[in-house]
Amino acid sequence: MTQATGPVEQTQADQSTVLESLRTRLADLKDEPGSLLEALYIAQEMLGYVAPESIEIIAEELGYPEAHVFGVVTFYTLFYTEPQPKHIVRVCRDLSCHIAGATEIAARARQEIGAHPGHASPDGLLKLELVSCLGQCEKQPALMVNLDVHGPVTEEGVSDLIRSLREEDQ
Ligand code: FES
Where are the domains of the chain? Predict the structure, then answer.
C-alpha cells in the first residue's frame, strides 16, 4: 500500500510543482471507475494531506463535483485536510486490541512520541491517534504507521518502531 508522507517544509513553488505532478499522475486514473480513493491517497502521499487545491485538481481530472470529492475526504478518517506530521501512529483501542494490551501500547507510544494523542510531537515528526478497529484484529494489539499495519506489537516493539522512524529522518 502507498505510504502516506507528511509535509516536509514546502515553499509555494514546491507546492505548485507537486500539484502539477499530481495532475500528471491522475492521467492514468481518468478512465478507471472508482478511482477516487486511489487519487486521494496519491494526493495525500504527495503533500502529506489533501489540500483544497488537490481536491480541485482531482475533481477536474476525474470529472466529479468538488463537493463530492470533499465529502469523501471528510468521510474517511485516513484523509487529512490540514498538514500533518510525517508519521501518524494509529493505535487501535477497540475490544480485541484492548484485551490484548492496547492501553499499555498507547501509553508507550505517547511516551515515545512525547505528546498527547491528536498532537504533534515536539520535533513535529510524529502524531499519535487512538482509533477504532483497523480491521486487523488477528494482529492484536495492532497499530498502523501511516498506511502500514504492525502487529501483534509489544511495548518494546513500539519503542523500537518509533525510534526507527525518527532515525529515518536524521
Ligand atoms: S479490534 Fe483492533 S484491529 Fe480490530
Answer: 12-75, 87-168
The CA-based dihedral angle spanning residues 135, 145, 164, 160, taken in that order and rounded to the nearest 10 degrees: -40
**pLDDT above 90 (res 16):** no
Strands 143-145 and 148-150 turn out to be antiparallel
Q: Which residues line ligand 1 (CB under 6 A)?
A: 92, 94-97, 133-134, 136-137, 140, 142
- 8 A C-beta contact, residue 121 and residue 115: yes
- Is 87-168 in CATH node 3.40.50.150? no
Q: What is the side-by-side order of every strand in the sheet holding 148-150?
A: 126-131, 87-92, 143-145, 148-150
What is the best residue among 90, 94, 148, 149 to mutate for testing ligand 1's pocket, by most ligand atoms within 8 Å of CB?
Answer: 94
Residue of 7 and 49 predicted with greater confidence: 49
pTM over 0.85: no
Spacing, Cα 102 to ligand 1 middle (Å)? 10
Distance 24 CA to ligand 1 centre (A): 37
pLDDT score for 4: 45
Cα–Cα distance measured from residue 35 to residue 145, given in angstroms and rounded to the nearest whole number: 23
